[in-house]
Amino acid sequence: QVHFVESGGGRVQPGGSLTLSCVVSGALFYTLPMTWYHQAPGKQREGVAGISRGHTITYSGSVRGRFTISRDNDNNRLYLHMNSLKPEDTGVYYCNNPDNPGSWGRGTQVTVSS
Question: How many CB atoms lie within 10 A of CB 72?
Answer without folding.
Answer: 12
